[in-house]
Amino acid sequence: MPRVLNMGSINIDYVYSVPHIVRGGETLSAASRRIFPGGKGMNQSVALARAGGSVTHAGMIGEDGKHLFKIMQNDGVDIGLISIGKEPTGHAIIQVNEDGQNSILLFPGANQEINESFVDKALASFEKDDILILQNEVSCISYAIRAAKAKGMTIAFNPSPFGAEIADYPLDLVDIWLLNEIEGQALTDMTQPSDILNAMGQKYPCAIIVLTLGSAGVLCLHKGKVLKQIGKKVKVQDTTAAGDTFTGYFIACLTRGLGINESLMYANTAASVSVGRNGAAVSIPLWDEVMGGCE
To answer: Up-side HSE of residue 155: CA atoms within 13 Å toward CB?
Structure first.
């Protein structure tokens, strides 16, 4: 079974319940504020562990984030490669409206302290065919991709949040793409899901392309074949960690030897459970809950 290294962000989320997403120049009172553990990297590691996968998380936090060690450990995440940096822990200010949709303002903090020596140390114990998961909330992405690929590792990349710097990454080395429609449009200049999938397939013909569509489900292009999972109808509370839940479950299922279609099904179900709950990492379901939702 391949080992998984997730080199990703660790944040503290400040979540505000609002009647609508605040507009420019507007002052708006929030109905409540809650504080949750989060960050795309942490969410994905927790999802992977809750799906029964084995994952080591490599990341940086500040002195103010030490309580996050125990949270990740309790879910079975290996935290041996998390270091304490000089900057405060990254944090996000998240607005969630009455329909469960969100708007996120991100402060990267310690997540941007990852450098080449940190990457080398993190990769030292990993080998050919192990998996490296990356998102775009930490620094040193290009170096990490090249260094991991030089070891023969499989690269899974979630290009979120999308920024102009992504164009300079060695994207031809990515083996598994996990993206939503917004990121897909930014990468291809296409708007329709089928066009995004085809354009990504032409650019990266050897990669697995997974395109999440929110309530509409997910599409996947693998070896020229398009696979699809229909979205599940659920009452939405908070969509904050839905994509991260999907990513963690999908990778975990692959490492457990499940096929692409089965992995898509379980990941899709897990994401649908998470949107019915508030918070980020805390909203991610356990494997038995997902199995029950697939019956």
So the answer is: 26
CA gap 132, 6 in Å, rounded: 6
pTM of the model as a whole: 0.92
Torsion of CA 174, 185, 43, 81, to 10 degrees: 30
**Cβ-proximal residues to 281 (8 Å cutoff; 6+ apart), any chain:** 36, 37, 38, 42, 43, 46, 71, 241
Q: Identify whether 159 is preceded by a cis peptide bond (ω within 30 of 0).
A: no
C-alpha–C-alpha distance, residues 280 and 37, integer Å: 7
Indicate left, alpha or beta for 275 from its phi (over 0: left) and psi (-120 to 50: alpha). alpha
Q: Transcribe 216-273 into DSSP letters.
A: GEEEEEETTEEEEEEPP----S--TTHHHHHHHHHHHHHHTT--HHHHHHHHHHHHHH
Cα 265 versus chain centre, distance: 17
d(CA 16, CA 102): 10
Say if residues 197 and 217 touch (Cβ distance below 8 Å). no
Kindly list the domain boundaries of the chain, sorted by start residue.
4-11+38-89+109-294
Active centre residues (catalytic):
244
Helix (H) and strand (E) counts for the chain? 9, 13
Pair 253, 50: CB distance under 8 Å: no
Q: What are the mean pLDDT values of the chain's consecutive 10-residue runs (295 residues total)?
A: 96 94 95 92 96 97 96 96 97 90 91 98 97 97 98 97 96 98 97 97 97 94 95 78 94 96 95 84 88 71
Spatial contact of 79 and 67, defined as CB atoms under 8 Å apart? no
State the Cα–Cα distance between residues 248 and 48, nearest whole angstrom: 4
Domain 4-11+38-89+109-294: CATH architecture, name and number where available: 3-Layer(aba) Sandwich (3.40)
Cα–Cα dist 118/266, whole Å: 33
